[in-house]
Amino acid sequence: MQLDAYDVDPASHDEMFEAGPLVRPEYRELAQRLSEMTSADIEQRKRLADLLLRNLGVTFTVYSDNAGIEKVFPFDPIPRLITAREWETIERGLVQRVQALNLFLRDVYGEQKILNDGVVDPALVYEASGFRREMIGMLVPRGIYTHIVGTDLIRDERGRFLVLEDNVRSPSGASYVLECREVLKRVFRVLFERYGVRPIDDYGDWLREALLHVAPRTADEPTIVLLSPGMYNSAYFEHSLLARRMGVTLVEGRDLCVTEGAVWMRTTQGLKRVDVIYRRIDDDYLDPVVFRPDSMLGCAGLFSAYRSGAVALANAPGTGVADDKAIYPFVPDMIRYYLDEEPILENVRTYIASRPSDRKYILENLDSLCIKQTDASGGYGMLIGTQSTAEQREEFRRRIEANPRSYIAQPVIRLGRHPTLIDDKLEGRCVDLRPYVLVGEKVRVIPGGLTRVALRRGSLVVNSSQGGGYKDTWVLAGNPGVEPG
User: Fold this and answer.
1) Partner residues linked to 429 by β-bridges
2) Which of the two ends of the chain, N or C, has the fewest CB atoms closer than 10 A to its terminal CB?
3) How far apart are CA 153 and CA 13, in angstroms?
């Protein structure tokens, strides 16, 4: 493979190349191996990766695709490398951030000191779609609201890692991290071993331990279940894989019932009491008695059992207020307020459309900003001004003027790029990174995470629903430039 034909964009940070053909120290071994491989070698490894993923059943669902909603996992076999030094900073920053977010949730549903002190605008909290008044005054098990967090990071033009957003309700994608690793360990077995990559095999055990930590204290042998909407959900593959990895039962709402104030699971031997529910359904569908009365996905009486302390839910209802995009700009302030520390990881500069001055700036600069809907995900509800038409900008202008609380704006950042296999050659594509943080007796960060890649040329959107793919992420145990063992 000819690496000298690779096009380095001088305006973006390239993960493998510093300038021109100069390879970064941590990538030298990988670059050397790729340069020795023929097109036939590359194609063979790509076919092997696709075959392994197909056999593993690694799929996702795109509901808007008329060609068929079930898609084979779009996987790029060129791994992404993160040095031990970089990861140490990322890990410390994520632990700090998650601690502050949990303290914020405890405060917002408790004494609301941060609102009374004017650090966070109360209107933004109360108007957030993820805010649940039913949670006010409730003491959640161990004081932990968000047990599983997926924080999205990007590199800017200078190569700095910045936080793009927090996913604290029910972050998805951990299963792809685990399966990507299994595939790459076979596709690049020798290279993987030489690099000394930090393992991620403990994720299932770590997740189970985090869930056991919040089990009701009356439970001698706690029973954990993973609550899924069912096989037609876009993330069902992940639900089933994580349940297997933890050694717990995968259930749907119809498998549960509430009697005598406790939650029970129907089994072939009769009812079995449930102590912890890792729920992968939205708040609205948890309990038709409290939330949406037409929900067929949850369990009637579940929220009452939760409030009484008979069962633990992970993540807690109402955590969505903390990943509302209009609350995101205040996380650095939360860190200073609750922890009396300076943020280790910076945010992207963000304008809140509900503020008159910010709204004026947004409307005057629609052609140069990235506009996001505050409660949308998956790359939907977004306008990238530099790639938009006049008609699209006018449409978003009307939306913002009609409902400013629902929008924020950020500068269009030239995301960091990574060499990606396109046909039979390497081309630079934009990437982000979603590490996963587990909060239990201790806070743990899985070494690596989900690297998402925008497979379409020139695209800044990495979501699989918008044509994105994934890479394996290798956190190196050693220092770059040192011969791998």
Assistant:
1) 418
2) C
3) 14
User: For residues 12 and 157, is the Cβ–Cβ distance under 8 A?
Assistant: yes
Parallel, antiparallel or unpaired: strands 22-23 and 17-19: antiparallel
Looking up tokens 């009697």, which residue turns up?
259
Cα separation, 420 vs 462, in Å, equals 13
Backbone angles phi, psi at 221, to 5 degrees: -125, 85
**3-state class (DSSP) for residue 166:** strand
User: How big is the chain, counted in residues?
Assistant: 485
Q: Which amino acid is at 280?
A: R
Does the predicted model carry a pTM greater than 0.90? Answer: yes
- Angle subtended at Cα 476 by Cα 211 and Cα 195, rounded to the nearest 5 degrees: 125
Angle at the Cα of 97 from the Cα atoms of 92 and 103, rounded to 5 degrees: 130
If phi > 0 it is left, if psi is from -120 to 50 it is alpha, else beta; for residue 43 that is alpha
Domains, the chain, ranges and CATH? 351-412 (3.30.1490.270)
Return the structure tokens found at 54.
């197909």
Q: Do residues 273 and 310 touch, judged by C-beta distance below 8 A?
A: no
Q: What is the token pair recorded at 467?
A: 């044509």
Tokens of 479: 């220092």
Check if the beta carbon of residue 301 is closer than 8 Å to that of residue 289: yes
For 290-313, what is the mean pLDDT? 97
Paired sense of beta strands 256-259 and 346-347, if any: unpaired
**For residue 381, which phi and psi values (nearest 5 degrees)?**
65, 35
Tell which wins on pLDDT, 398 or 67: 398
Burial of 398 (0-12, 13-18, 19+ CB in 10 A): exposed
Across the range 159-178, mean pLDDT stands at: 94
Judge whether 44 and 62 are in contact, CB under 8 Å: no
Task: Tell me how crowded residue 181 is: count the other CB atoms within 10 A of its CB.
Answer: 20
**Per-state percent for the chain, helix, strand, coil, to nearest 5:** 35, 25, 40
CB 29 within 8 A of CB 433: no
CB-CB neighbours of 85 under 10 Å? 11
Distance CA(397)–CA(386), nearest Å, equals 15
What is the distance between the alpha carbons of residues 146 and 208, in angstroms, rounded to a whole number? 14
Contact 333, 119 (CB under 8 A): yes
